[in-house]
Structure formats: C-alpha cells, structure tokens
Amino acid sequence: MPIEFRCESCSKLLRTPDESAGKKAKCPDCGTVVDVPASGTSPSDALGSSEFSQSPPQPTPGESNPFSALGSGMPENDNPYASPQLSAGVQPAKPAIAGELAHNKISFDDVLKTAWAITMDNLGPMAIFGVVLFGIQIALGIFGQVINFAGQASQEPVIIMSVQAVNMVINFVVQTWVGIVSILFCTKMARDRRTDLNILSQAGPYFARALGLTFVLGGLSFVIVLAVAGTPALVAWITTRDEATTAIAAICGVLICMIPLMLIMLNFFLSMFFIVDRRERIFAAMGQSRIYMRGNKMTAFLIMLVVQILGGLFVLFTCCAGRIIFDPFSILVLALIYLNATGQPFERPISK
After folding, report:
1. What is the Cα–Cα distance from 33 to 8, expressed in whole angstroms?
2. Average pLDDT of 136-141?
3. Which carries the bigger pLDDT value, residue 335 or residue 197?
4. Contacting residues for 108 by C-beta, under 8 A, at least 6 apart
5. Most confident residue range from 23-27, 53-57, 160-164
6. What total of structural domains would you count in the chain?
7. Does 27 have pLDDT greater than 60?
8. 155 and 25 in one domain?
9. For residue 297, is it within any domain?
10. DSSP, res 96
C-alpha cells in the first residue's frame, strides 16, 4: 500500500509509492527534504483518528477509487509526493503555511489599542530592542562623521566623494538589515507576544530580496520625481529663461509629485512584510501588497499619521530618550496593520 506520512516542517500529509521507502523526498508545499519511512500507515493513523469526521468515501462498482492514485483524480505519472485529497467535511489538522491569508479591512482602533497593550505587557523586551535600534543609529552616525572628517581632511575631491559614497552604501545596507530584523521581532511579538534577541541574526535569508525591493521602490520614486517635479521646471526654463520662475515651477512640481509618491508608498506598504514573513519574491510581494491594501490605504495612512505625530511629541518631551519605546512601537503598528489587512490571527488585548 502507499506510504503516508507528514512533512517534518509544515505537517503536510504526503503520500508516496512503496518503492520510495527509505529514500528522501521533497515536500511539494514547503520544499523541505524529508526521509520516507520504511513502512506506510493508514490514513487514520497518519492524521490521528480525532482529525476525521468521517471515513474516506468508498468507490462504487465500476467507479475508479479516488484514493488509488496519488490524490483524487490524479494520473499515476504525476507528482508522487503530492498530498491526497480529503473527503468532504474533513479538514487537515494544520495548514501548510501558518496564518492563511484573507483580505480584511484594517480597524483603526484595534491596531492602536493592540499595539499599546502589547507594548505595555512587554515593556522590558520592547525597551531592550529599542535600545539596540537606537545604539545602531548612534553608531552609524558616529562612523559617518569620522569617515567624512577623514575625507575632508584629505582635501582631495575624489577621496571626499568616494568616502561619501561608501558611507551611503554602508548606511543603506545596515538600515535594510535593521528593517528586516525589526519586522521579524515585531511580527512575532504581535502574533504571540513572545520573542528573543536571537532574531538579530536571522535576517540573512531575506536580505537580497529586501535590498532588491528597496532599489525597485527607490528607482520608481526617482523616476516619478524626475518626471513630475522636473518637467515643470524644465518647461519654465525653456520658455522664460528666468531663474525665479523656474524655481517656483520646480517647487510646484515637487508638491504635485507628493501625490503619486504617497500612492506608491500606500500601495506597496506591505511589500517588505510579504518578503520577510511569507518569503515572497520582490514583484510577487509588491503585487500581494497592492491586493491587501485595497480599501485599507486611508486607514493605514491615518494610523501612521497619528503615530508619527504623537510619537514625535513623545520623543521631543523625553529629550530623545523616548525613542527606545517609540521606534519598536511604530514598527509593531506596521506589523499589526499587515496582520490585520491579511486576516492573520494576532494577540488582541483582553477586555476588562
């Protein structure tokens, strides 16, 4: 009989022919390579008797058995490691990917109240993480000042420009890494209110795609600014040759281009979360973000506007010491927007 077993990584039920016993197989859902057990078990043993509300349907005479092939209706030469279909009314014990997605409207109150409750309940870990983020920013600033001073001291234009370019690249790389780590930390905190600082070393698998996404969005924004803001200034200069008129046209162009830039930001607001949390590729993540931000753009904009205004005042009145709480809090709000918009479960505050 076919061998049925569960993937060690995602718990997907797999079925493979007898001759595959003892060999390695790749899970078609999560890609994990697993060892095929030496002998098969019945479907009820593989899933656990409590997971079936009824037995698999039996074929009537003259009808092909839907479980004789490797999945209902599947020809013999198809993927031998595919999961068999379950009968009507039967649900698998665990989804292949934790947190299946469903488009959901963001709740302004729910996001802010939950973010505040999580922060208050985990003030210590949030503050420690905020200190780490703040320390990284200070270290970057000091490093940038030192190498810029060294470049200026040489009084060589080529060296000065090279040093500035190196400083920009280092800042870009470090900020991308910090962004990934922040998403990992705050998304886990939002889901189960537990995390650890080992997450600081887990940004590697997402780094290349995160860099690519930043380049794509940065390039798109640059083209829009160049086209929308630069065109009026160019036209004014060609037609009038007047510097004041050209400057006014350029300012008007910059103000106008804020609209498409805001639309880009809101449409692709969740792209980095899809790369880090769902391991999507760059353009797939951007497409997913557009889907789940439909109907949520204005709410997300208002949430972030309130957070930035109130957070800015808090940081100002605490002489910047409040950043150790505000920085992780603002990222936690982003994580809750992502989980809320995609219909994923997260820890909500307990009503008293």
Report:
1. 9
2. 90
3. 335
4. 299, 302, 303
5. 160-164
6. 2
7. yes
8. no
9. yes
10. S
Q: Pick from 210, 219, 209: which is nearest to 182 by CA?
A: 210
Q: Can you tell me the distance from the alpha carbon of 105 to that of 296, in angstroms, rounded to the nearest whole number?
A: 6
Amino acid (1-letter code) at residue 38: A
Last residue of a domain, one of 58, 74, 97: 97
* Overall average pLDDT of the 77-99 stretch: 40
Q: Token pair of 251, please?
A: 């300012």
How many whole angstroms separate alpha carbon 7 and alpha carbon 81? 10
**DSSP letter for each residue of 165-179:** HHHHHHHHHHHHHHH
In a domain, 103, yes or no: no
> Residue 125 — φ and ψ, nearest 5°?
-60, -40
**pTM, to two decimals:** 0.67
Q: How far apart are CA 124 and CA 148, in angstroms?
A: 36
* Residue type at 25 in one-letter notation: A
Pairing of the two strands 3-6 and 24-26: unpaired
Question: CA angle, 33 as apex, 29 and 35 as ends, to 5°?
Answer: 120
Q: Which residue has the tokens 């996001």?
A: 111
H or E element in which residue 6 lies: strand 3-6
